[in-house]
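Entry type: protein chain
Record version: 2
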Amino acid sequence: MATVTDIAGLATSSAAADVIKALPDQDVRVDASPAVATDIASVGGKLHIFFANFDGLVAGQNAVQRPQQGIRVSFAAAGRGKAWFLPFLGEAVPLQGQRQSGRLVFVLPEVQKGAVVWFEE
């Protein structure tokens, strides 16, 4: 018998919140829905953040993600100066960051299925 999994149920998981709270404060911060998975890596010496959107997916019922808006990536203010956003099967576009509370903040365009953001010094 197959089990139906609703990814939206993860948003209320106290275990997930406890894990996030236990992580050390890092220079890179990503503010996104709990239904958005991220992986941070150095590719060719440049910081890359990979995003996968799982919001709205329900096994055997819905295979189309709900687009995510307002995802924010931030760094210490002395950090990266130029950023690029590449949506899944799309074209790369430059991102403009804003300085807020001692940090450089980038608000990403809508993420439908997935995306990559990378930074240049």
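Comment: The longest strand covers residues 36-43.
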